[in-house]
Batch of 4 targets.
Target 1
Amino acid sequence: MDKIEKIAIYPGTFDPITNGHLDIVIRARKIFDKVLIAVAESREKKPMFSLKERVDFIKAATKELDGVWVESFDCLLVDFAKKKEVKTIIRGLRAVSDFEYELQMGYANNFLNKEIDTIYLMPSLKNAFISSSVVRAILQHEGDPSSLLPTSVREMIKCM
């Protein structure tokens, strides 16, 4: 009997990807055979970095991780998941404040597609405070977010 691959989608804006995001990808990869990092267009959030830049950052940050790939999407997440034939969504939880929003989104996604399950993973304690919005604020004020970003992403941002 052929083994069925366990695949999960880790969606987000990733503006930019941080060490906290990467921590979640690595944890998810221990559970799933493959992890699809799904980068949302998110025009309503007015991202600091273009969709292409965000995808490129993630590709650079995950190039050493087997079973991980990156795609962008601009539709409902459940529609993207259905198109990719993936039934599990991974979400990261840093603090209790994240939980209420993520739980609501998990319920909404399951309401829209009963086959969708959401799994919540926590980053390690050293990455628990990191968010893309913190990194963007540091960048906007010309600070140094080096310790919050994967090395490859840090180098790509320096070149911009």
Target 2
Amino acid sequence: MPRSKNKVASKARRKKVLAMAKGSFGRRKNVFTVAKNSVEKGLTHAYVGRKLKKRDFRALWIQRINAAARQHGMSYSVLMGRLTSSGVDLDRKALAELAYSDPAAFKAVVDKVK
């Protein structure tokens, strides 16, 4: 009995990898072994990037809140401490959006905790 190689699944797997490598330059887009390495590294970077995005956005929100709070004579740490002690439940994302798009509302929040 001849050996079964399961060509259908092998070809589908290779096609999937080459489809993910589409848009790459040179042999990365059409040579399977090179494309496989490129795709694996790309997926690794994508995974790490999803974690870094959360870190970067949190840092951006903190910078925006700090800049807006200092315009009202208060530092970021003092503002956040007073927000928690006064029971205002606004997260950093919402506060940063207020500071960026609606400075009057942010001033009202700062005045409430002063």
Target 3
Amino acid sequence: MKKRQKRLLLVVGGLAGVVMVTGLVLNAFRDNLVFFHTPSDIVAEIVPMERTFRIGGLVEDGSVARGDDGITVHFRVTDTAVAVPVVYQGILPNLFREGQGVVAVGSLQDGGVFKASQVMARHDEEYMPPEAAEAIKRAQREAARTVGHPEGY
């Protein structure tokens, strides 16, 4: 083999290695990417059922119910426009309560129930995830616009 052929083989092999590593990194990134959605997004059906994602908003007042086993909790997350039922098995954070901000990680099940694998509550009086705060403001604006114009103006 000539020197030029060896160099070409080395360059092609290096490029193939870089392409393969880039593909593996992008595939791992895609599998670990978790999007944030609001209850309004779920009701609008823009959320894929099989993917893991985050849902955020407020725990709806009067919606928390504990199961007979002591670890299953049912509650509803709302963005003040719509609410989505959530079921979680595990120990809830100490700050979890009705009317407080919450972010849950999980997936959407049949019947529109969100099955959470992790629940996070806000940690002080001032904190709410920016996405959840914006979703609540957007839902309030939409509700105000709808109430102001009953014909759907």
Target 4
Amino acid sequence: MSEKDAALLVIDMQKGFISECSPLYIKGAEATVPACAAVIDHCRKNSIPVFFVTRSYNTDGSNVENTRFEAWLKGGKPLSPGCAENISAAMPEEFGCDPRDYHIIKPRYSAFFATGLDLVLRRLGIGRVILAGTTTPNCIRTTCYDAISLDYAVTVLSDCTSSKTAEIQESNLRDMANIGAEIIDSEALFEN
């Protein structure tokens, strides 16, 4: 994999998805934080653009997906202004911040759906996206499929993505490989 025209997309690694007390909790997401942090650091050191693609819900719930609304409402309105810090839209402290980072708020699962991501990537001359974050069957997979449809090469970092079960994770990684995504772990990224 060539990194010279690549960008890292870190998807939905927010407390509202990685905190066990959140109704939107994804089992396994918190365990990927150290690997994600190492990849973020590697990309920053190697001048690979880092995009944090996240969710943010309105306090009235008007932009929450229908399939999540009930859990969101009953569970303290995670990822919304004024919710408890441990279920907020904040990212793990391990990720730090860098003024070169990009921040995209997405309204649905794919990082490309109704966002300016494609425009910014093309302006930067990006030909490959490296995907990390949660959840593999939803946001990672839909972003992967949209990226491939938009003619980007896609690399999915297996140890920087998560699903509710190992079986779901493996099945989705296999499906993405079958449509042309490169599936590697973060150690392989560091070797390039």
